[in-house]
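Researcher: Structure prediction, please.
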Amino acid sequence: NKGQVYDGWETRRRREPGHDWALVRLGLPGAIRGVVIDTAWFKGNYPPYASVEAASVPGHPSPAELAAAAWTEIVTRTALKGDAEHHVEVTGDDTRYTHVRLNMYPDGGIARLRVHGEARPDLSLYDGLSLDLAALQNGGLVTACSDEFYSAPNNVIAPGLARHQAEGWETARRRGPGNDWLLIRLAGRGLIRLAEIDTTNLIFNAPGHVALTGLDGDRETELLPKTRLQPDTPHRFRLDHAGPVTHVRVDIHPDGGLARVRLHGHLA
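Model: Predicted structure follows.
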């Protein structure tokens, strides 16, 4: 019997000196911009204090190798409250980290640890290979959009498939002229050979048409002319153009939603 079951991490009551800690491999290596320490439901058993350290260790290190690594404190010892979210901004550190260590003082329970930042995977693994240049897990990012009334535009480059329409990007109904759009910063400057535009789950709110434009500095290249879309359908388009691009603008006409956008190619 280990006591009450909580949806989080709870340690035994510490009777000796020291504190409890956990090592976390980040979902993606990257620069850390903020940390959330959530003590939801832990009211009489939350730790009074916590801190967070980060390390950059290549490969697939063991726990013993991580324990011997050089750690940098990114969140100093911070007072916690029970049943509360604690948001801590991380500034002045652009290091690419692979792991974090959560320290609680001296013991207790933490429901969730969130580590927010910018993904910086090792793209050298794809030398000579193709990849999704738009994908979040490869370092792609939506940097601008015309509208995000119903859902966040970065959803369209998230891993996996959208399970329902809220896991994609959907705009408000457009009553005036023009069209909605989003701008994707690619994982790196590259050549795009195949575009996937997925309207799965979007039955009555899919765009009528889509167009893709590649950007490389001041140069604009039409990757896909204005093309009709069907609702609730994965679309695949082969692209044939001459030059590499760093960004892609996705124009939907006139409005609506997309489940996923994939831009397959290789780094220039």
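Model: The domain at 9-119 is CATH 2.60.120.260 (Jelly Rolls).
Researcher: Thanks, that helps.
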